[in-house]
Here is the input.
Amino acid sequence: DIVMTQSPDSLAVSLGERATMNCKSSQSLLYSSNNKNYLAWYQQKPGQPPKLLIYWASTRESGVPDRFSASGSGTDFTLTISGLQAEDVAVYYCQQYYITPRTFGQGTKVEIK
Amino acid sequence: QVQLQQWGAGLLKPSETLSLTCAVYDGSLSDDYWSWIRQPPGKGLEWLGEINHSGSTNYNPSLKSRVTISVDTSKNQFSLRLSSVTAADTAVYYCAREIAYFDLWGRGTLVTVSS
Here is the structure.
C-alpha cells in the first residue's frame, strides 16, 4: 500500500494569514506516460462528508475559492490557503489514486489562532 | 446534478453483517467507478472498495474477505456488505463517485456495532 503522511497534524493560523500543510507519499504518484500526479486534496468540516478541493495535485475543483492552491510532484505535495477565512476551519486530507487500495493521509486540522 | 443517497441499518451486534445501499440520482452508474469509504469516530478515512457498472470490483486487502460490493444497474444502486462486524467496524460509511478521485460523496451513515 502507498502510505500517505501529512504534516503537521494541526495548525493554528490567524484570520487572513497563510496556512500551509504538507503531504508525503511512500512512493511516487507521478505517472510518466501522462506526466500527471495522482493526488487529491479534500476538506472536511464536522458532520459533513469530505469535499474535493484539488485533483491532479494542483487543479482546483470547480467552485473552490482561488485562495486554495496546491503544488508538488512525485512524493511531496503542499496545500496552501492564502488568506485564511473562518469558514476554512476544517480537517484537510490528501489522497492518492495512483493504485489500489486508495489511501488517505491522516489529516491536518486547521484552526483559527 | 448527480446526487448520492445512502441508507442502511445503523446499529448492529457483533458478528452480524453490515448492509448499506447507495442510490445514484440524476445520473448513471454506467460511467466511472463507485466506492465505499469509512471513517471511525474522530479518525481518518479508509477506502473499502469500488465497483463499476459491469460488476468489476477492487477491495482493500486489509478487510480480507469480509467485504462485498455489488451493483444493481436496473435500480441505479450499489451496495456494501461487511460480514462478521466487531466494534472496530463502528464508523460513518460513505458512498462516493470515483472519477479517479472522489468528486461526489453521500452524506454518510453512522453504523454502530455494540452488544
Q: What stands out?
A: The mean pLDDT of chain B is 96. Residues 12 and 95 of chain B are 19 Å apart (CA to CA). The first strand of chain B starts at residue 3 and ends at 8.
